[in-house]
Amino acid sequence: MISFPISIKKILITGGSGFIGSSLVRRLMKETNIQVYNLDKLGYATKFNIDHQNFPSNRYKLLKIDLIDIEKTISAIKFADPDLVFHLAAETHVDRSINAPKEFLESNIIGTFNLLEGLMIHWNSLSSERKDSFRFLHVSTDEVFGSLEEGGFFSEKSQYDPRSPYSATKAASDHLVRSWNHTYGLPTLISNSSNNFGPRQFPEKFIPKVILNAISNKSIPIYGDGSNIRDWIYVEDHIDALINIISSGNIGEAYCIGGGNQKTNEEIVEIICGLLDFYNSSNSPHIRFKTYVRDRPGHDKRYAIDNKKIFQQLNWKPKHNFVEAMSYTVKWYLENYYFYIN
Q1: Which residues in 163-272 belong to E strands, given as ranges?
Q2: Hey, which residues are catalytic here?
Q3: Is 198 in contact with 306 (CB distance < 8 Å)?
Q4: Do 265 and 199 contact (CB within 8 A), yes or no?
């Protein structure tokens, strides 16, 4: 169960209808009595993630606002009057960032700037007691560090080297958050996570696309030769880490969050197809849909996270076994297949 100090009564989550944000909302609603405010523009990738009507109205409020609108953002923060803020609102899909980079600049950079401006007004209005306990956690990605060669790991000391419009805009937002801490004293923290997976993820992402395409008898596209490596983390483990960081992390610092599951894209496809063969045997073998396609521009070769800092300082490590979590994820998409295709 989640245990926040008694002084924490209201939490604001930006992007609380996205994949990771909605997982955080569900956990807070289930395991605390805290009032939760979800500030989200409800973009295209949110429709599968959260049923707002399932939550009691006295504890959950949806604030349908785009962070690009600074006046509405400031008003929403004033209305929510939060003690803690998790900032997850962002455009995140690398392929889309290559085709429409301006959307990523507006959402990830200008949106974060507007949020910081609004939070400064809020933080400066708080009593000294509430000011001392206020925290702002900016949720970012390991992609800001670029690409790794074999054997290396990203850590909090890694140099920023973004390679796509998505990672460049997330890197810029990281720097904005750091500067608001150093220049203005806003109590901020940053997390940089590896690739997430789990139920309810929008099907443009790699793992749900593989699952749903295989079920639908469509080709499973693999960029290049399939040797690109990612460090995968189950979304519920990521939520545990975020709660630990905002509760016990050191103000002004960053924490890298990795699942410790380095897999090539080809390995992920093989694992998923093997699970589908077991749970959906009538359509076996699913691996027959595997197709290699032209690699995307600037495709980072490898990501991997060194969890040493968050483990030593906050005693966090992933709880879920990778194969068991992937198995649960595959079964969830099989059970909800028609919801996704309709």
Answers
A1: 188-193, 195-197, 220-223, 229-234, 254-257, 262-264
A2: 142-143, 166
A3: no
A4: no
